[in-house]
Each structure stands twice: as C-alpha cells, then as structure tokens.
Write a structure and sequence with these properties.
The complex is a heterodimer of chains A (about 200) and B (about 190).
Chain A (H helix, E strand, L loop, with lengths): L14 H9 L5 H11 L3 H40 L12 H21 L8 H10 L1 H8 L2 H11 L11 H11 L25
Helix pairs in contact in A: 1-3
Chain B lengths: L15 H23 L2 H18 L9 H20 L2 H5 L3 H9 L18 H13 L2 H12 L4 H8 L3 H27 L1
Helix pairs in contact in B: 1-2, 1-3, 1-5, 2-3, 6-9, 7-9, 8-9
Classes of the chains: A mainly alpha (about 200), B mainly alpha (about 190).
C-alpha cells in the first residue's frame, strides 16, 4: 500500500481502513508496529479493530449464506427439471410411458372396433367365432395320451376301425409329454455325411 | 486511565456482581478486538481469560468507572501482545483470518468451548439478509473485491493479479465497498448488540 494507491478518493489513513488492513494482515511490519503502538493508547483505534472484525464477519456470513442459497436453489431446480426430462433413457425402458402407450393403443383399438362399419374388418365377435371353430387345435395341445385314446375310441367306436392306424397320433402326443433330458437325446433329422457335417451346407 | 495508588490497601476488590456486569457489558467487543489482534481463537480466549483475572484483581483500582472500558481493552491488548511475543505467533497467526475465527466460534462446527457464550451469539437472519441486499447494491467491481478479500481470503495483491488490475485500484474498490456497506453494517451490528 504505497506508491500505487493513487486512486481518487482512496484514504490510506482512514482509521476504519487501517483497522481492517490490520485485522486482514495487509499492513507491512512498519505500519503494523505503528498501528499497534496506537492501539496501546487509543481506545478509538481499539474499537475500530473490534468493529472491523464484526463487520467482516457479517459480510463473510452474508456472502456465505448467499452462495449456499444459490447452490441450494440450483440443486432444487435441477431436481425439478430433471424429472420429466431423461434423455439418456430409451422410451422402451420407461415402464410408465410404455404402459400409457399400450393403454392408449388398446383404447383406440376398442373405439375403432366398435365404431367402424367396414365389412372387411373383423369384429371381436367374428374373431371369437373363428377362434372357437379352431379351438380343437388348442385342445389337442393339452390333451394327454390317455385322454386321446378315449377320445379316439369314442370317435371311432366301430368294428372296422383299426386302432393301430391311429398309433402315430398317440405316439406323437406321448413324445410331446416326455421330458427331454438334453439335446443329445434327440436324433438328428438329417443324415450326416461322411465328414460328419450337415449335407445341405456343403 | 487513572489508577489510585495512594490508598489501594483501603480499597477492596470489585464485587463478583460488579465484575459480572463489566464482563457482560464489554466482553463481545473485547473478544472481537482480541481476535483482530491475534487472529486465533485459542490465543484470543487465553488473552480474554487473563484480562478477566486482571479485572478481578485490579479492577477496583480504576479511579473512574467511565474509563473501565478503555482500561480493560488496554489490559487485554497487553495480554495479547504478551501471548504473541511468548509464543512467537505473530506471523503464524497472521496467516489466520480474524472474522473466520469469530464465525467458526459462533457456528456449530469447531466451536472453542473456552470462548465465552457472548461470541456464540446468534446472528439474526434478517440482519444477514440486510447485508446481502446491501452487497447487491454496491457496484460489481467493488463487490467482487469485497468477496474475494473477505470470503475467499485472497490477499489484495492476489486479487490484483487475479483481476488484472493495479493494486491501487483494488484497494480503492475495497475501501469504497466497505464505506458503502458501513451504514447497513453499523445498523445491523447495533441491532445484534442490543
């Protein structure tokens, strides 16, 4: 604080300024010694030191709370705005969005189904009838071998009917009910060639 | 400061209630003053205790009670200088920051239990808000220097280097900023001390 303190209105001898500089350790050793000699005698100077500490404390606290408030505000803003905007997550990985889309799709499909008169478009009743007419396939898939034998016996309960002709069907159902231990137990459908490879890929 | 030397034997030490009253009246400013001189909580606490012992021992020798404040501060200053010299802490404590010491003493973190409760006063939120508002009203160049010096703890020379401004400009901005803040600071501190 010597030669370059020539700024207008700057008063290096102002007591409050000296007290602040003393508290802030901004005085060189000579000026500090002078000021401490003054402190030994001058109560006004001692009061100025106490006041400088108080004022700087209050400014420090005000700046600190201001900055903390700014950080907290930024955090809360970030949290709020981050909720609906998650650009790094694909839409198909968002259950809520997917459920909403599916619900909307079903809703519009139902509206379309009940409101349209186009003959080419099958109604739900048509689909049910079709499903009912082909339900034997579904039933067949769950029937076991014994039930099938009874079914076949009832259906073809006649002396001319040879049960042995239907054994392929029973065998097929039995095969589907048997557990498969491993892929090794399944016989290859295609004969291997001499090299052991699949013939179709030569 | 005048102390009676003629009939000291006839005078009795101050009553405990009187010592307590003097303590209550001056201790806040006294602690701030000692923090300003020593820039160290523990050292300030030691100096304060020594000063209070002196008050109990010799306070009755102060002729005019109106000068009690001046006497007490002078005793405290001498105790502080004694601590400085004994421990050679002049430069060591010069690296500390007085106002941060006072703040940490008043905050819940690291409060020195030896400091009196007067330092641990609660600064009212409205006073802080007033100062914050006052800070926003001073020109930004001045506010920047005030923040860098008081909050960031940079030296004036470091601030000048950081901002690329002459040291004199930085000093002038700091002084101008403090002068503009002073009225609101004075008002707030008066409120706090009441």
């Amino acid at each position: 604080m010597t030669s370059d303190q020539k700024t207008e209105n700057f008063d290096p001898q102002d007591l409050d300024w000296l007290a602040f500089c003393y508290v802030a350790d901004e005085l060189d050793s000579a000026k500090r010694a002078d000021f401490e000699a003054r402190l030994d005698e001058d109560q006004v100077a001692r009061d100025a030191v106490a006041r400088a500490v108080s004022e700087a404390s209050l400014i420090h606290l005000a700046i600190g709370t201001s900055r903390h408030a700014s950080v907290a505000e930024e955090k809360s803003t970030y949290t709020v705005s981050r909720g609906p905007v998650t650009p790094d997550v694909p839409f198909w990985k968002r259950p809520a969005l997917l459920m909403t889309a599916a619900t909307a799709l079903v809703f519009f499909a139902l509206i379309w189904t009940f409101n349209t008169d186009a003959p080419s478009a099958p109604t739900t009743v048509d689909l049910a009838e079709v499903w009912g007419s082909e339900s034997w396939e579904s039933d067949l898939s769950v029937v076991d071998a014994d039930e099938l034998r009874e079914l076949v016996a009832d259906e073809f309960d006649s002396p001319e009917f040879d049960m042995t002709e239907a054994t392929w069907l029973v065998a097929a159902v039995d095969a589907t009910n048997e557990p498969v231990d491993s892929m090794d137990s399944i016989e290859p459908e295609f004969p291997e060639n001499d090299e052991g490879g699949m013939p179709c890929f030569h | 400061m005048k102390i009676l030397n003629s009939d000291t034997s006839k005078r009795t030490p101050l009553a405990p209630e009187r010592v307590q009253a003097i303590y209550d009246k001056h201790v806040v400013a006294l602690e701030r003053f000692l923090l300003g001189v020593l820039r160290d909580e523990a050292a300030a606490s030691d100096a304060l205790q020594s000063s209070l012992i002196k008050l109990m021992e010799k306070g009755h020798l102060v002729q005019q009670q109106d000068s009690m404040r001046s006497w007490l501060f002078r005793v405290a200053f001498n105790e502080a200088m004694l601590i400085k010299r004994k421990a050679s802490i002049g430069r060591k404590h010069a690296q500390g920051i007085a106002w941060k010491s006072e703040l940490s003493a008043g905050a819940d973190k690291g409060a020195d239990p030896r400091l009196s409760q007067s330092v641990h006063h609660a600064i009212r939120q409205e006073e802080i808000v007033k100062v914050r508002e006052a800070l926003t009203r001073i020109p930004k160049p001045q506010r920047d220097v005030v923040e860098l010096r008081i909050y960031e703890g940079l030296k004036f020379r470091e601030i000048a280097d950081k901002l690329g401004e002459p040291l004199g400009t930085v000093l002038a901005r700091m002084q101008a900023g403090l002068k503009k803040l002073k009225p609101i600071l004075k008002e707030s501190l008066n409120e706090l001390n009441e």
